[in-house]
Amino acid sequence: MPMLRTLLALAALLSMSLTGAQTREAGYRFSPVNQYDIPLMAAYWNPIVQYVSDKSGVKLTLRIARTSADTTAYVLTQEVEFVFSNHLFSPEREQLGWKVFGRRQVPPILGQIVVPEDSPITRLEQLKGQEVAFAGPEAFVIYKVPYAHLLNSGIDVKVVFGGNQNGALAQLFAGKVQAAGGNSQLIEGYAKREGKKFRVLWSSEPFNDLALMVSGKVPAKDAQAVADAFLHMHQDPAGREILQQTAQKVGLPMDAYFVPSTASDYAAYRRFYQSAPAQLR
User: Where is the signal peptide (predicted)?
Assistant: First the structure.
């Protein structure tokens, strides 16, 4: 019996070792929230993911769906192992075991409600009963934060989802909606890329940019290798050039590199859920 137990233990250890090796060889899936349309998402993230894969020796594959809600569904069904997201800070989702390890070094982002600069709408109250576009039901800064403010202010609007920030703003400038919810960082980038001007009707408190996070099921060695590649990217001339080129494509500051971060940097997100309307928690 002691010999049998020893053999079983060795077999279990061998199985775990082979599983880890197979996981590393097969690689991991990385899902960033849809902040842009699919072509722009790919143009920004593919070079970064390729660099991180090469530098870390851990293969990452970019996995994004059509909308931000669909991409977050991958996360909630555990179909991915690394994310760039701010959709995981509700009390229920914090139990899923995701760990923050980084974020971009950019100014804090604000939830906003915007209209075109030449719109006749100058006050939030004028939006009552009007159609307002948001990215999607999972979008924290673009949807939950501004819509919570409208609900708390007694301003009932007709919600329209555009799939991502670009989709919401495209509907705004096509005249299909009267206003749009926005992320200040993405609004600024859209204005630069498309030559559009906005009037901001309302802005929220500041929130840190989206978090780089790793699933608890990723072995510590692989998680650390990927984190190191992201966080040291700007210190490598090749990595810094990629960051600058990709930032330019989406309208981010040229020094938008990745820095270490922890869960404590996302306290503002947790505060939101403490007082948010029930349907947005």
Answer: 1-21
